[in-house]
TrEMBL record:
Domain BFD-like [2Fe-2S]-binding: 382-430
Superkingdom, taxonomy of origin: Bacteria
UniProt name for this protein: FAD-dependent oxidoreductase
InterPro entries: BFD-like_2Fe2S-bd_dom, BFD-like_2Fe2S-bd_dom_sf, FAD/NAD-bd_sf, FAD/NAD-binding_dom, Metab_Enz_Cyan_OpOx_G3PDH, Opine_Oxase_asu/HCN_bsu
Record-annotated FAD/NAD(P)-binding domain positions: 7-319
Length: 465
């Protein structure tokens, strides 16, 4: 299937993508909004399917009014024909041609489609950083975002007795959401030291709304009597057919588990997260500069590839409010580029972006994974699930075979060669190997069936004037 050329193609319908698409459409720019999810909103505004009949979907969200305004504006632009919203499509390749761009997508049934545009805005979001530990492959061990996704999107609890662990602000809404939905929270385990917030007191104090939001989460944790252990980490998960318990331990000043502080906590679900990593696959394939993992953009959210913008988590993880500000700025910049006018960036959006980026940097400084987490990973622990590569095999490649970088580790062990192409196991393999993380440039943003490649039309076939 081919499509006529639209002025702007937006990849991703989360907060950044929506803000950019709506801003462009407000200025009568024809927009194609392509998203892999069945509904717009991204992870932050993820909605249950209408068939589930949720009576109060807003109970699982904050900033619901903001979402309602975005949704209503999107519906109006779609009805007016200014935005073409295409859900359930995975963009696997973007080609940069002399006169624009070709976007190649797959539907859920692996049917190929081709779209053309004069400009591309990447709002591809982020994915969770996964760090391995003994027992992390047991059924019932999920990422924190995964637990939140099934609750928001499917109204399903991942288990009845849960432990939420790791580090980062995402743990709070996950824990309170599970508790409010009826799960019993056996513990919230946070690796960060609360005293670290004091080193950034002025930055945090400049955001009273964020502080009030955090206080609200704390109040709900107290109301549900959730035990909170700070400066602790999960060192192992236990079970046979499913996780049955976890062992946690206190961390010393150097970020090592302190011997003698271990305690066992019964649970049937462990939701664990250590932050997010920007999705940069499409940007990398287009040749956009990344540093080290985010897409580098200028004050107008432009990448160094002409005609390509990036906004939201792809340009640096910072939350929904920052994504909305960046999306609006990017949308206005695209309008100026396509109409030949001067960019009209609202000062409120630019100031909000500056303040929220500073806030996000402070959070990152506080919520880092334990410095020596890899020491807890036993040699028989799988670090690459797709290829069944153990931590011992990775260490052997480094100490005995001389691997000094992730590419060599991959060649010697096959770690990262499976279905996820290192997206899941990359941070874990790097940590166990003691190698710095690497930005991998892949020609395709996701695995593609050979039958699709055989049927893929040429660029001239895909672009219609």
């Amino acid at each position: 299937m081919t499509s006529p050329t639209d002025r702007l193609a937006v990849v991703g319908a989360g907060p950044a993508g929506l803000a950019a698409a709506l801003t462009a459409a407000d200025h009568n720019i024809a927009v194609t909004l392509i998203d892999s999810a069945p509904q717009p909103g991204g992870q932050f505004y993820r909605q249950p399917a209408a068939a589930l009949g949720a009576r109060r979907p807003q109970a699982l969200h904050h900033a619901w009014r903001t979402w309602a305004r975005l949704r209503d504006r999107l519906d109006a632009h779609v009805a007016a024909g200014r935005i073409r919203h295409l859900p359930g499509r995975h963009v696997w390749f973007v080609e940069h041609l002399d006169r624009g761009f070709i976007l190649r997508t797959l539907t859920g049934d692996d049917e190929p489609e081709v779209f053309a545009a004069d400009a591309v805005l990447l709002a591809t979001g982020a994915y969770e950083k996964v760090l391995p530990f003994p027992g992390w492959t047991l059924p019932g061990v999920v990422t924190a975002g995964g637990a939140q996704a099934v609750l928001k999107g499917g109204l399903v609890l991942p288990g009845r007795m849960a432990v939420v662990a790791g580090s980062g602000p995402l743990l709070l809404p996950v824990a309170t959401g599970l508790a409010a939905a009826g799960a019993r929270l056996a513990a919230l385990i946070e690796a960060a030291d609360p005293r670290a917030y004091g080193r950034h007191a002025r930055t945090f104090a400049a955001h009273p709304g964020k502080l009030a939001e955090a206080a609200g989460y704390a109040g709900r944790l107290l109301r549900h009597r959730v035990p909170v252990l700070t400066r602790h980490t999960v060192v192992a998960a236990h079970g046979t057919d499913r996780v049955e318990a976890v062992t946690v331990a206190a961390l010393d000043a150097d970020g090592r588990a302190r011997p003698g502080t271990e305690r066992r906590i019964a649970c049937d679900t462990l939701a664990v997260g250590h932050g997010l990593l920007p999705h940069t696959d499409l940007a990398g394939a287009l040749g956009c500069r990344t540093d080290p993992a985010r897409v580098v953009v200028d004050a107008q959210q432009r990448t160094d590839v002409p005609g390509v913008w990036a906004a939201g988590e792809a340009a640096g993880v910072g939350g929904a409010a920052l994504a909305l500000a960046e999306g609006e700025i990017a949308g206005r910049s695209v309008v100026a580029h396509l109409t030949g006018e001067r960019p009209r960036i609202r000062s409120t959006a630019a100031n909000s972006r500056t303040a929220l980026r500073k806030f996000a940097a402070a959070l990152d400084a506080v919520h880092t994974p334990p410095a020596h987490w890899a020491e807890q990973v036993a040699d028989d622990t799988l670090v690459c699930r797709c290829e069944d590569v153990t931590a011992g095999a990775v260490r052997h490649a480094v100490t005995e075979l001389g691997a000094a970088d992730l590419r060599t580790v991959k060649l010697l062990t096959r770690a990262g060669m499976g279905w996820c192409q290192g997206r899941v196991c990359g941070p874990g393999v790097a940590g166990v190997a003691g190698c710095p993380p690497e930005t991998v440039r892949r020609p395709f943003a996701r695995p593609v069936p050979l039958s699709v490649l055989a049927r893929t039309p040429s660029p001239t076939e895909g672009r219609q004037e």
